[in-house]
Design goal:
single chain, about 500 residues, alpha/beta, 3 domains, six-stranded mixed β-sheet, four-stranded mixed β-sheet, 16 strands, about 15% strand, binds zinc ion
């Protein structure tokens, strides 16, 4: 079998040194070096263009970019998408030749921004794959893993490799990657031989941890349409009908959104769960980023969404206002029947907060078995006086937020409805631990979230301790507002 590796000339100095390793990773030892040729495809067009310009050229829709193509007997069999690199030998060469620009002199100096190393521009690799998927598969190869730099191993990129593997692409040199930061930060054990996410919820859980660390910039959230059913014990259970993943699009973030949506879709399809994607900047508080958030995805990224069958809806301001009106109408219905607990709203608000969907005590992550548990309890809020409610709102600077959330925000009933159903007033608990929480067998201290044991019965206490996954609420859950809600619970229960 004749094997031909094709490399574009604008990348020849950077990519040819790793071609043999790539072949080894793809074929093992079943390859005779006499049968291998490496062909450099000229992109210079009579030397009229510098390296950067050559890389941008597309000709007959073929992108002269981060792709190595491997042919078996002249049939394209493997596409290898390359990471970006901060050790770009071709640009260094060009710089030494005197065709310099400022950027080329940065060879190897700066750390790479998380989004730049792998994801930026990845749509072009996917595009080439979709055009050739009849005969070829798509793999990835990570550069710079032999250098003394951290970016190939950092949290954000590690997540991307797992996303690629979950979608069904292989990262050839994944064994070069040290996942210890990922494991430490996400509190998640990884099977290094199988990096695919095991379930939709386990993936969401890790995204939640990682987004929370990207402080002040929650890039997206998940909404869920559920149906409530009551079992023979009178317990309510919410079954998922459909998820909607709502995201905004900053210029570089759209590559990230592409991978996230694709990975979510693959996992949802596997579990038979319905998911839709919605781009809606109206949903986000984006004071500083406003100008950079697009109404739509850029055309090249949108093209890949289409090719991967990820249908995105775009939210117009009018639709957003309609949803707000719907929420107001729902509030009026609740007010009429004197109910302030809106469990569906509450559950979605907790999702919006982006905390892991798992029991805060034992870690059970079966989504259909999880209850959204109130911290400041519904009846306590309902019984509070106007003065107590207003004071809570004032102390926590919620005036503006509540005012912007509804035209009925002046009603005392609305304020109570808002607080009862606030995502910060809730945690996920399994049925068992929810019951024990409501029976006041245990609580969390409002400063550090540590579990306070209040069991009267020794056997139940020992059982409880054995099931504990953590010592208390994580930092992600324990926002300043959540601490306030917890304080109110403790005041009422005299803890
Ligand atoms: Zn539990």
């Amino acid at each position: 079998m004749k094997i031909k590796v094709k490399v574009y000339s604008c990348y020849q100095r950077t990519y040819t040194p790793v071609c043999n390793r790539i072949l080894k990773l793809l074929y093992g030892d079943n390859i005779n070096s006499n049968d291998v040729t490496i062909e450099i495809e000229d992109t210079s067009e009579n030397n009229t263009k510098n390296i950067q310009a050559q890389r941008r050229v597309t000709n007959n829709s073929v992108y002269k970019g981060r792709i190595i193509r491997i042919y078996e007997n002249d049939v394209l069999k493997h596409i290898v998408g390359m990471s970006n690199t901060n050790y770009d030998e071709d640009r260094k060469y060009e710089f030494l030749q005197g065709q310099s620009n400022k950027e080329t002199s940065k060879y190897g100096e700066d750390d790479y921004h998380a989004n730049t190393y792998l994801k930026q521009g990845i749509n072009q690799i996917f595009k080439f794959y979709f055009e050739n998927k009849e005969t070829a598969d798509l793999n990835f190869y990570l550069l710079d893993t032999d250098k003394d730099v951290n970016y190939p191993n950092n949290l954000y990129n590690s997540l991307s490799y797992r996303e690629l593997e979950t979608i069904g692409f292989k990262v050839l040199n994944i064994s070069d990657i040290d996942f210890s930061e990922y494991e430490e930060q996400c509190n998640s054990r990884i099977n290094h031989n199988n990096l695919k996410f095991a379930s939709f919820n386990k993936y969401l859980r890790d995204i939640a941890y990682i987004s929370n660390r990207n402080s002040g910039n929650v890039p997206s959230f998940l909404q869920c349409d559920e149906v409530e059913s009551i079992d023979e014990d009178g317990d309510s259970r919410f079954m998922t009908e459909k998820y909607t993943y709502i995201f905004k699009s900053l210029s570089a973030q759209q590559y990230d959104s592409l991978l996230k949506c694709w990975c979510l879709k693959v996992l949802a399809d596997k579990e038979g769960t319905k998911i839709e994607f919605k781009l809606g900047k109206q949903y986000f508080d984006y004071s500083s980023d406003e100008r950079r958030i697009a109404e739509e995805l850029s055309q090249p990224v949108k093209e890949i969404f289409d090719l991967a069958n990820l249908n995105i809806e775009y939210t117009t301001t009018e639709e957003f206002m309609n949803e707000k009106r719907k929420a107001d109408n729902m509030y009026l219905r609740y007010k009429e029947s004197n109910k302030i607990r809106n469990q569906t709203l509450f559950r979605n608000n907790i999702r919006k907060k982006g905390i892991p969907t798992e029991c805060a005590i034992c870690g059970n992550d079966d989504v259909n078995m999880l209850d959204a548990a109130h911290l400041w309890e519904v009846y306590q809020i309902k019984d509070s006086t106007q003065k107590q409610i207003n004071n809570f709102i004032k102390v926590n600077n919620l005036q503006e937020i509540i005012k912007n959330s509804s035209e009925y925000s002046g009603d005392l009933f609305y304020k109570k409805y808002y607080l009862v159903n606030s995502g910060d007033n809730g945690i996920w608990l399994c049925k068992n631990h929810h019951k024990q929480f409501d029976l006041n067998y245990y609580c969390f201290d409002s400063e550090y979230g540590k579990i306070i044991f209040k069991f009267a019965d020794q056997a139940t206490a020992t059982n409880f301790r054995n099931e504990l996954k953590t010592n208390g609420l994580s930092k992600e859950i324990l926002t300043p507002l959540t601490k306030s809600f917890l304080r109110m619970r403790q005041l009422d229960k005299q803890i």
